[in-house]
Each structure stands twice: as structure tokens, then as C-alpha cells.
Amino acid sequence: MIKKLEEEARRRALETPPPQVAGKGFSAWKGALSYPVRGRVLSPFGRREDPTFGTVTFQKGIEIAAPLGAEVRAVFSGRVLYADWFKGYGKMLIIDHGGHYYTLMAHASQLLKRAGDTVRKGEVVALVGDTGSINGPKLYFEIRYFGTPMDPLEWLRQAGAGAAGVAEAAESADGGRKGAHP
């Protein structure tokens, strides 16, 4: 889907590339991005096996529990590539951050940006919802590079990083990968 949207964006010949922060591209921010919403990580990225059915799936992003209507912020500056309903994801937003990096946010109750809009790092782009979710309000969040999913927890600021506003992830049974964060 991202490849198709990327081709459409090229065809529309958008006049300027997505904005960058302080001359650094998205890749320079690995491990330093702020969380898109305050909440608790419900499920991490990667392979999982259903204990009841024994089926194996691969989750391409993380799910963050957050109150209905909580503000969802862009983790980096860019241009909105997609903002609409998508089957299985509900109301979904994809932001192109340049250099073939994208973030995807889904299950929103409201999308505050439209395709083609430019967004700044930290700008509110959506509100948490439960569209496309059967488990209540949460944010589904992915990071992709050339369309390939990357583990968002490797890109987001973790506890002990030493910067103001650091995500204070609570240690849990999965080695600190789940937890509350601001």
C-alpha cells in the first residue's frame, strides 16, 4: 500500500519534500523519537503465537492503550500520505518523513490532517479511538523503511535515556518492552 501511495504522491508532483528537523533526517533520530501518545504498550512488534490455537502471526507495529480522544502526535516532521478509513485498521494516517521512512497510526477516533498536509514533529495529527479495533481505545503505531516494518520500540525514547521528557517505560515480564510512558 505504501508503495502505491508513494507512486501517487510522485504523480501529483508535490512541490516540496517533507520538512526535516535541524538538517537531520529521520534515520538520525533512532532511539530518540517521542512516543506518539501517552499510554501503556499493550503488545510489542514481532512474531507471536496464539496460546489457544497455536497460530503464528507477525505484528508489524505496537499497540498503545490510551484514553478515547487522547492526542496523537507526529513523531517527526513530514507530509501526510494517507488519511482515511482502512479495513482492519479503522481511521488511519500515514506520514512520509522523507528518505523512504513512514509512520502509520491507526484506530483513531478522528483524523485531524488530510493527505497532502505538512506536519511538524510533535503536532497533534489525530485522536485515539477504537475504529477497527475490538479491544477498546488504543493507538496502533508502525514505522516503515522502504515499506518494511521496523520495531518502533527501537526508535522511541526509552527510560534512562537521559533527556527531558524521556519515556519512562515500566519494567515488565517481557524485559521492559511493555509499560507506561508519557
What is the secondary structure topology, with strand pairs?
Blueprint (H helix, E strand, L loop, with lengths): L1 H11 L26 E5 L2 E4 L6 E4 L2 E4 L5 E3 L4 E9 L3 E7 L4 E11 L6 E2 L4 E5 L9 E8 L2 E3 L29 E2 L1
Antiparallel strand pairs: 1-4, 1-13, 2-3, 4-11, 5-10, 6-7, 6-9, 7-8, 8-10, 8-11, 11-12
CATH architecture type: Distorted Sandwich
The helix count comes to 1
Written as H for each helix and E for each strand, in order along the chain, the element string is: HEEEEEEEEEEEEE
Alpha-carbon distance between the two ends = 31 Å
Overall pLDDT score: 81
- Overall morphology: globular
What class, by secondary structure content? Answer: mainly beta
Name the CATH class.
Mainly Beta
- Give the biggest beta sheet: 11 strands, antiparallel
Strand content: 35-45%
